[in-house]
Design goal:
Chains A, B, C, D: Keywords: Oxidoreductase. Chains A, B, C, D: This is Gfo/Idh/MocA family oxidoreductase. 4 copies of one chain form a homotetramer. By secondary structure, chain A is α/β, with parallel strands linked by helices. Chain A has 2 domains: 133 residues, NAD(P)-binding Rossmann-like Domain (Rossmann fold, 3-Layer(aba) Sandwich), CATH 3.40.50.720; 239 residues, Dihydrodipicolinate Reductase, domain 2 (2-Layer Sandwich), CATH 3.30.360.10. Helices cover 32% and strands 25% of the residues of chain A. The first copy, chain A, has a 9-stranded mixed beta sheet with strand order 16-15-14-13-7-12-11-8-17. In chain A, a hairpin with a 4-residue loop joins β11 and β12. In chain A, α5 packs antiparallel against α10. The longest helix of chain A has 19 residues. Chain A is globular, with a radius of gyration of 21 Å. The N and C termini of chain A lie far apart (51 Å). Chains in contact: A-B, A-C, A-D, B-C, B-D, C-D. At the A-B interface, α1 and α2 of A face α1 and α2 of B. β16 of chain B pairs antiparallel with β16 of chain D, so a sheet runs across the interface.
Amino acid sequence: MPISTTSPTLGVGMVGYAFMGAAHSQGWRTVGRAFDLPRTPVMAAICGRDRARVDAAADRLGWAAAETDWRALIARDDVQLVDICSPGDSHAEIAIAALAAGKHVLCEKPLANTVAEAEAMVAAAEAAAGRGQLAMVGFNYRRVPALALARRLVAEGRIGTLRHVRAVYLQDWGADPELKLVWRLRKELAGSGALGDLGAHVVDLAQHLTGELITGVSAHTETFVKERPLPDGSGVGEVTVDDAALFTGRLASGALASFEVSRFATGRKNALRIELNGSDGSLAFDLERLNELEFYDGTEPASRAGFRRILVTEPDHPYLEGWWPAGHGLGYEHTFAHQARDLVHAIDAGEQPAPSFADGLQVQRVLAAIEESAEKNAVHTPVHGAQ
Amino acid sequence: MPISTTSPTLGVGMVGYAFMGAAHSQGWRTVGRAFDLPRTPVMAAICGRDRARVDAAADRLGWAAAETDWRALIARDDVQLVDICSPGDSHAEIAIAALAAGKHVLCEKPLANTVAEAEAMVAAAEAAAGRGQLAMVGFNYRRVPALALARRLVAEGRIGTLRHVRAVYLQDWGADPELKLVWRLRKELAGSGALGDLGAHVVDLAQHLTGELITGVSAHTETFVKERPLPDGSGVGEVTVDDAALFTGRLASGALASFEVSRFATGRKNALRIELNGSDGSLAFDLERLNELEFYDGTEPASRAGFRRILVTEPDHPYLEGWWPAGHGLGYEHTFAHQARDLVHAIDAGEQPAPSFADGLQVQRVLAAIEESAEKNAVHTPVHGAQ
Amino acid sequence: MPISTTSPTLGVGMVGYAFMGAAHSQGWRTVGRAFDLPRTPVMAAICGRDRARVDAAADRLGWAAAETDWRALIARDDVQLVDICSPGDSHAEIAIAALAAGKHVLCEKPLANTVAEAEAMVAAAEAAAGRGQLAMVGFNYRRVPALALARRLVAEGRIGTLRHVRAVYLQDWGADPELKLVWRLRKELAGSGALGDLGAHVVDLAQHLTGELITGVSAHTETFVKERPLPDGSGVGEVTVDDAALFTGRLASGALASFEVSRFATGRKNALRIELNGSDGSLAFDLERLNELEFYDGTEPASRAGFRRILVTEPDHPYLEGWWPAGHGLGYEHTFAHQARDLVHAIDAGEQPAPSFADGLQVQRVLAAIEESAEKNAVHTPVHGAQ
Amino acid sequence: MPISTTSPTLGVGMVGYAFMGAAHSQGWRTVGRAFDLPRTPVMAAICGRDRARVDAAADRLGWAAAETDWRALIARDDVQLVDICSPGDSHAEIAIAALAAGKHVLCEKPLANTVAEAEAMVAAAEAAAGRGQLAMVGFNYRRVPALALARRLVAEGRIGTLRHVRAVYLQDWGADPELKLVWRLRKELAGSGALGDLGAHVVDLAQHLTGELITGVSAHTETFVKERPLPDGSGVGEVTVDDAALFTGRLASGALASFEVSRFATGRKNALRIELNGSDGSLAFDLERLNELEFYDGTEPASRAGFRRILVTEPDHPYLEGWWPAGHGLGYEHTFAHQARDLVHAIDAGEQPAPSFADGLQVQRVLAAIEESAEKNAVHTPVHGAQ
């Protein structure tokens, strides 16, 4: 059932089939049904280590073939784009190999578990770019329409000179006392805790929305519950990642930024909230109400000024041309269709999509500075390469 | 790419490819990727009058074949379910023929443009039921998870004895002074204006959520702008449908209900809001924030009671087992996947899905009573068959 | 402790010392401390039937003297203004006598329990006006700053041609199953139930904010709980007033209005909500958030338009010159200080303050039409004198 | 007009008559009208340096006498309580002298401009306590009913083990480019900028609501606009205080705290927001909606849990026994009446009211640690005396 028999295709091979794999699949499945595309994505093959489970995933998610070795996936002729949805410790190896094999790459965030890995990925991406291959990191929240609109308003100068960025990303699943020592709580697998999982998103958004880099940070991290029952019931084990992180920083312009990420914010399910205050206006967003953007226009007379709730569902709002009439809201998963749309266009045009691997590396450097500051009694720590 | 090679299939044929057609397509395309189903829906054929356009729609929306005559569509062997998304004046004829041809039927709301048509459809559905065929009307908002949760809380007795239902459905596209005399503003095509388009939804929801019928109504309707430019630029024509309707009524239990629907509520894009007040609690919902349900538990001590915002994204909320982790919101279109899920289960089980054609007829009778009351100076007018 | 030894005084005599008496006292006590006034109000005397209780009230509320007969109060030389806060069945007699005695009069809403009483009061006020005496009815919510701002925005044309008014006033104390048969539930004392108590406010506001009269109504009323325990424990008695009323109507311009008032809206404590939709914009207000006004400016580009929350605490917002810096909210009782401010200015200038007794009579006529419609099966019933 | 001729009086003498003087006056004027008090406050005398202006203030605000020397005020026999509303640099001298003169003292926040001054004040207060005199610092926001309720819920254990405190206090008047170099922007007069003005409040609330001390902090401060026009038009001068401060810290239990205060948060007028997350629940408050408290009860089943908006106007909510029926909101100024109520009761009972001068000193020490950390590159800095 091709969307178009006339446009060229783009074969996609995806690594991973858990939460992110399902979300990316929905993006690839839907993007050509909602948007006009210069190439038609084809869900060519999916890859996972367990044969039975990857076959079931291919069947359920709609991939034409299944592989159990990512090397086989990237070797397939019908795959032009490798979409990496596996855990962070595998990103560097797969991405570098895929680029070496001549494929375009989309890699889930965080780009890698370490700065060194990320640097290697950037080098590989830059080399590949010379061969016409593109690499993109999957900070999908940039493509929530309300946040894309926020970026547009900032770029138009509507908030004036930036003064403050204030961002939190709060969840509460860690507060469950019966939670076991899952892989996300082990440093050797997950790299970090709330910091890499949630902090990477708010760091990327803060830099993307403002168009500025974070130059230095001061940070506290904390692990509230130090031991958890082992999943196999054989006793307890140590939690080796952070449950929460607080960090403050400065942006290149001198604006101040404050951040908090936590898995212990009882009642907050997915509260990525970000606010920007500038000399002429302010913007505020909450992912739990993702179809809305609040905008304060400080150039209005004070007697009529107020934070307005823009319902970001109008035809001329970013990405809305593909969807429903005004007022019919989108959901979380639509960000993956938007990401796919922009990547397909970029590949067709041969232009670098944003965010690049270099953007992902910059986020990684901020995370590294946060960890360094937290270890050094919160002292302000410069972000490498951002000064 | 079948979802499962072992489960039987269910061939779907759809009539219409505009807004509702695109939304239903997204439902059929997605449902088997998100939910476990006893039968695998197959998007067999789509039907539209214009060959080029229906071919393009099939291509874009992912249907395997395209027909230009609905009679051909319902005659296809690979179609077991006919999904009717064409305008209201075509519903009765197609649905009755499809049932006669031995197909299951899903028909968009409103069931028909007149009570007489709806009655004929109910008769056909009842006859077909004896042959094991099922018929359902597409009031998709029943399957917004927050509203499904509301229904569950009412059924559990959590709001006690019902006192009030208060519902509005407000949009604002009619307030555009440059709006032309489109088909939705002509009675011969659309049947009615805001009443059938928006009023049908709130009437159905009021009855569904409360589990009670509306027994009588008092109504005002209004056409604010009496003439509009003709689309072809040849002058102006008369607007022959209502722009807004206000109606109040009584439910079977003696509870009071108030309703307002309008296309002239400037700034309200898709504000379907419904509140229920009972002796023990209250519920409130707004479609512009469709992942939320407000619940007031009146059995709490007054000093700690308050309307709570339930983020309806938990794993044990209705329909959420198929989607994302807590806090990751859904959008408008998911209602169509939920509708498809329940219909596939019902067909497999041979059980009548809700809402039935009889439920659709009951809504039609309420709309007829509203029109009658509006013509008779708002006098309270009984709803036929609801006493 | 006079506020000013140079400005003339205005002696106030108040009838009643319950909730409204305490609220008015706070207004008179505060007004000269917050605002510049041309005359200094003096809390000269308070009146109640029970000597011990009225003495205690004078002491508590800060009145210089206490009377047990309202005739004695209005005869006092140190009283130039009679402020009537007693129940509605006493308003006409006291107001007419006070006017005959040469006093200015402020009378709590509703103006009277019947249209006939209100007509007699208007006649007395008009005769007294020729002698330089002023009469005002106490619809205090007109002087919530957010609603005064709303009126200003409507008058400036910022919402364009009016299409809809939508107002509710919801409370929930009636839903308490142990509530006794208090005087407010007996028609012979209270005149009506939710209708006069809550409905009078929304009718006045709808007319005041729009600058239009309600020309006709269609109404349902209901008494959900028909019998209540007598306060003295001697058995049960019949509830003879409405618990709730729904009414719809038309304004002079052809705009539609919908209203609902209830004492059975569980969880809604004081939810007076009013929304106006016009061709160019909309306004929305909720008394539970009385420092806020929502404004939608439909002349903005759709991509940046949204309901803005104006925090009505800026120095140039109505009445705010007397209070605190921006952002420091006011409460319910401030409306009585604002009412007092405007009345003192009007008396000093010899100009009729709004709302007049005639405005109060007009509200009474709307309430009478509502009751008539409710008795006549909701048929649309013209409001006397409003066509 | 004494409130009661039988209860003893409490003569109050107030220093200062600007914003805080007016607010405190409203508190003293009102408290005995709303609450039952064991002693009747008498507004005996007010003090300011300018004779004409203090006479006018006495007249306007309702004080019986006026002094131009605070030494004369505290020497008056009719003054038993000295209420200090003058700028922070005068607090120590006046408070210590008043205590030496045998008076009770209420001192506005911040207690002093330096830790050394605050320590001297605590010493004086402790000595005076032995003589039966009481001293209190005016952190009025503790007595917003919603925050008093929050404290009650924490003390009842309803949020369980504390994990996070998150507080901001955001205003925007500093963002006005035409703002002159007023005294609040000069360190020699104001001590600090947003930190002392706004930060003192959030530090006190964080410690009060949680019942824990802040043990250490990491801080950034910033002055965005370095020069401002002089008020006399003679050129520009340097801004010597902070415009904004960000600080993070740890509480005694190991919970994390994050704070931000700013005068450059465009559109935020008085946004003191504080959220507490515990193992069993969360609380959230916003001063711009001061009659509301949000409470998440994590012990509810997840499918029905949500942040509930408690309208803190019920009769059994803190301080509400003195005011209006449920749903009738209070304003900013009511906090001063509540403060007066509790202080009068404490004086009558001879019991130390909270917050004490020692509590004020503790806040001062946190502010000093913030300034020290900001100077030392944000390194985590212990709070003296809190370990």
